Amino acid sequence: MNRRVAIIALLLSAALPARGQNADALPSHQTQTSTGGSAMVSLSKPVARVNGAVLTQGDLIREMYAIFPYARQHNGGFPSAMEADIRRGALKMIEFEELVYQEAKRRQMTVAPQRLVKAEKQLRARFPTEQEYRQYLQMEANGSTQVLRTKIARSLLIEDLLKAEVDDKSWVSMEEARAFYVKNPEQFKLAESYALQTITIMPPVQPTPKQPNPPPPTPEQLSQMRPRAEDALRQAKATKTFEEFGILAEKISEDDYRVMMGNHKAVDAKDLPPEVLQAAARLQQGQISDLVQAEGAYTIIRLNAHTPARTQSFNEVSTGLRAQLRQQKTEKLRRELDAKLRKNAKIEEL
User: For the purposes of burial, counting CB atoms within 10 Å of the CB of 140, is it exposed (0-12), middle (13-18) or buried (19 or more)?
Assistant: First the structure.
């Protein structure tokens, strides 16, 4: 998982929770709750011990919401098919965060008082009213500002250690990115593509779930389809713009693309039927083809764009490439740090 563990994580765990029955709120640690289909459990119930430090059901559920925030839109429930995996991932994450925190303490890292004050003010500013803040303070810290400051300091220490061991070391220079670009040219080749709109006249027997590959239309059926196709062609040739062709496609086309104004956007040349590719290759941008008989249907093509195969320049890809490489390096460093910290740790999952 790639997310910064900072004071923002603490803010997200609350997300202005003090609005009565607001679904964003986690109940008090003395109350009962449920994670979707699972049984009612106490949020103070231990779920793991990391070198003796207890992690609770409340910590776990909060992390599960961070992994799958959409659960808040479904009365706090997680999809039954995903809940076990979400829980497993959340448990590993809170164990990792606790190991990082303990490592920061072992290194005698500290948080400057002024920084802690600033972070506390930022947290307080997230609540529109004093009452909402007090309700949050009661829920998260049993009403104690000192307990809350301890939680904030913990979050900042985790952030600091991750910055030193992951963020700062994951920087990717322009030279590194260029070396990767030169070494992996295939990754930066763009295939030839055609952006098309179509109007299609379909045969009487069309694919269905029960018959995904119906027999091709007979010559007699094609003959019966031809007048409709020619009338469609006449109307299509009269259109002058993308919008005009698209409106006509919505009215008379019989394929699924009619609901999108017949727009196929960019399609790799290799994925087009040979007859369609041959017709499209003869068109200039904005031109409309004659009738094309392909895959048992009559199709009319409007060419919106043709992009020849080419290799992207380094300047085109450098920003995205550096971000991609940094993401990969970040994930690798986090995995390595997790493995290193777990190596001599005593972790009990309860």
Answer: buried
